[in-house]
Amino acid sequence: xxxxxxxxxxxxxxxxxxxxxxxxxxxxxxxxxxxxxxxxxxxxxxxxxxxxxxxxxxxxxxxxxxxxxxxxxxxxxxxxxxxxxxxxxxxxxxxxxxxxxxxxxxxxxxxxxxxxxxxxxxxxxxxxxxxxxxxxxxxxxxxxxxxxxxxxxxxxxxxxxxxxxxxxxxxxx
Length: 173
What we know:
Blueprint (H helix, E strand, L loop, with lengths): L3 E12 L2 E12 H12 L5 H8 L3 H14 L18 E9 L4 H9 L4 E6 L6 E7 L2 H13 L3 E8 L13
Antiparallel strand pairs: 1-2, 3-5, 3-6, 4-5
């Protein structure tokens, strides 16, 4: 049985400092969902292993993966590090208020930081949120002071995570 799942995702296109959000809908075949699930578990799987697990030919596995890459559903392949074991014991959530027309510039500047792992546009009293990792309070302090010295940032509020309960960027399919 060949099921199809309709997935909605947002595509951002920068127009100067204004972002245009368009809703893009993709029809994803059941076999593609299975391939994506396997690769989320272990992105080192060979085409041969993917084919074997799903009962398809190696060529079919190869073509589906390449098509998923071409469509942008697979953005890349990476390793998941244990940041705590690497000395990054502080996880912080930074809420940011910025001058409206400069929001994209502020977000892009924050995203350049090696400590920032995520930067999001959000709704509510704040305009953006950044998730960042630090080895110590001194490096966090320097980061916050640099943020506040940036033009067009009106205010920040920083929250320090006491415990990480879940940290997973995978999408359950």
